[in-house]
Amino acid sequence: MITVVSGGVGAARLLRGAAMIVAADELTTIVNTGDDTVMHGLFISPDLDTVTYTVSGAIDPQRGWGLSEEAWTTMQALERFVGVRPVGSHAGENWFGLGNRDLATHFYRTTRLAEGATLAEVTAEITRAFGIAFRVLPMSNDRVSTMVTLTDGTEVAFQEYFVKLQHDVPVRAVRFEGARTAKPLGLGELRDSRAVLIAPSNPIVSIGPMRTLAGFDDALASRRDTVVAISPIVAGAALKGPADRMLAELGHEASVVGVARLYSAIAGTLVIDTADAALAPQVEATGMRCVVAESVMKSPEVAASLTRTCLAAVGVGT
Ligand code: FO1
User: Fold this and answer.
1) Cβ of 249 less than 6 Å from ligand 1
2) Residue 45 CA: which ligand 1 atom is closest?
3) Could you give the domains of the chain?
4) Cα–Cα distance between 178 and 172 in angstroms, integer?
5) 46-55 and 119-129 are packed helices; what angle lies between their axes, rounded to 10 degrees?
6) What pLDDT score was predicted for residue 119?
7) Mind listing the pLDDT tens digit for each residue in 15-68?
8) Whose CA is nearest to atom 12 of ligand 1?
9) How far apart (Å, rounded) are the C-alpha atoms in residues 120 and 38?
10) What does the DSSP 8-state code read for residue 163?
11) pTM for the model
């Protein structure tokens, strides 16, 4: 078994490549659910959906989230209520863009959860409906909510930070509501897999939530030599999203060396992009082996090649 620890966009791109070279019954991914939110009474799991939509080829490639060929008439219809909505009410808010076709996924997930299904069961149904043959596991069936404290002291839920505020505000702290009691899924896979890949996702708010679940870090640390992380930071910047700024705002170095310091306890190898080759000795000074490779996944073929490089780094064939 090969297990990939995943956040959103970067992880989804890696998985699309991994699925090309690893047999479906040999591939599992454990996905962050700290971004999950309830909007209009619908339960939404953005990273699970980004993985599902990207791997199945249904993703909107420009946005990196949601579906292609989307229509937005439902969101537009909500404008009618703006003038009558009482102050303090969230009814009909449409800052979080839910396309008409994307809504179908949230209708299905919400009803199945209301019927008593676990998030893992519903995710298996949804990924199967999108033709995905490998295993996609949420990090927990229990609710974990990433909360972001801004430098003005206010605390907001992740999607309010990321979308409503366009993550254009500095952060002071991040915490994961519910993580202390949430039961992690996939610890067995993390312990027993021939290799574990930590996808190029935000170390703080995409990989971070999973690491706060009981036993997660220990499961990786116990087999650290065959855990390979891919840096989401290339030449000091994130390819997408606020990872570089968040690292700096939270006191870490926004570089492959800063990423190495965050991961060195749980991963024996860090893959960095060719743009950062000169920093390899500093990465190795943190106690991680460093592999330099093309890590900007412009195509599924590059993602497949990157997956092969990660597996080869720990002596695992596909
Ligand atoms: N990201 C945005 O920047 N704007 C949106 O309006 C938006 C809506 C949205 C709806 C469903 C969904 O699954 C994801 C959505 N995202 C949106 C992405 C979401 O914020 C993710 O959590 C981020 O991509 C970080 O992983």
Assistant:
1) no
2) 13
3) 2-59+183-313 (3.40.50.10680), 145-177 (no CATH)
4) 20
5) 20
6) 98
7) 999 999 999 999 999 999 999 999 999 999 999 999 999 999 999 999 999 999
8) 46
9) 17
10) I
11) 0.97
